[in-house]
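User: Fold both of these, please.

Assistant: Here is the first one.
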Amino acid sequence: MPRVICIANQKGGVGKTTTALNLACAIAMAGDRTLLVDLDPQCNATTGLGLIPDARHALVDSRPLRESFKETYLPNLSLLPGARSFEDVDALANSSDSRSLMLATHLSGSLGSFDSVLIDCPPSVGALTRTALASASEVLMPIQCEYFAMEGLTQMIEVIKQVIGRSNSRLQFGGILLTMYDATLELTSEVDREVRDFFGGIVYSTVIPRDAAVSEAPSHGQSVIDYAPRSRGARAYVELCQEVLERV
């Protein structure tokens, strides 16, 4: 079974898709056969790699899932594209428990050719995120360094605990990642200290800085590591990759 990392946070704008995309690219560059799954109806992970969203999402289509994997500009990285179809978004986001189980089985049964799989979730704790968590071996939660960083975490962690508590679950809490980090701001230091004091060792040592290159890279269909390899953001995602790979 591959290592399946779910990138999730119910709060939007925390760097979730940015982290999923750049971490997937970094892991692929490290030599793992990697799949990035775009479950967010905004499809930013798909367009951020320079590809086009599918007309129908593979998880609700009748075709075998493998037929929907797309090659990217990196030899070791494949993509399961997102879809902006309102019908598919509604079907995925409002899945019943039985349908969520079916989707999780469908997803997990098609991943054998990969070493690592990263799932980019929508900003919610709805059925779609729960389906992704049920398919994953671990969850990585990005948190923006701002006043409301801790807001909603209790609910997200409760959902994670519910999934972990299922008898057939292999989900573990992989870690918390501090994003949009500005060391010149006192608020950033306060959030950093508060999160590390509360969560301890599950918080990654690596932090992702505010860096224009990170925001610009998706418009060029690349990771920040390829777009601006000497930038602070690129170095941070390489360091995060090393830290994630060490936490096996």
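And the second sequence with its predicted structure:
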Amino acid sequence: MRIENSFIPVSGVGETTERKLWASGATDWDCFDPSLVGPKTADNIESFIDTARDHLAADDPTFFDQVFPSSERWRLYENFRTNACFFDIETTGLDEHRDVVTTVSYHQAGETTTLVRGDDLTADRLQAMVADASLLVSFNGIRFDQPFLETSFGLDIDTPHLDLMYPCKTVGLDGGLKTVEQDIGIERDRPDISGRDAVRLWHQHEAGEDGALETLISYNREDAVNLKTLADEVTTTLHEQIFEQARQQSAE
């Protein structure tokens, strides 16, 4: 689904009204007919469309991140996927005030980069990572990865953030990232490695064990790369379940 198909950011338009609009043939902004709703709501919709077109033309994801309900933020993905940054971090524990970030991998425009503690994992590199992105994409990153990075490196990340854990739950995909990957058929090179193993691998690397860092990096990079596959899958499923079903009703 594209942003142009959406009316739900408009005051007075909820899920029911939006689906009725789609079912009535108003499947995007160009097809909107003011007679389909009351005059006040029609004015609100037309005002929103005028403003939203300008922000879309300016390639401004922040505006849409602010006006869409958080549960509908996945609708930004199709419009801003080209410069989306899929990222994942590894740490020595779960407490951002006590533990440290060991690696950060991000996948953007077909390229994957890993930053490593003690080498190139710096605040400047992380700031550049988010500055180059139209949209951050993670799994449980709003509650874990982003605040961990902000606390550890003194960052204030305001790039729009799509946390795939929530749209996954909407389509019935529960559990952690590895469980969700298995449910939709994403295969891993090392399915035996877990987040707990990532902590162990970092400590082995600190102790000088050959190959530990390489294995950790490979694991972290796979997390980031797989997020793109997951984003493609879950947003397609939501598009079919929400938008296409309403369109089919208009054809019946």
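The first strand starts at residue 84 and ends at 91.
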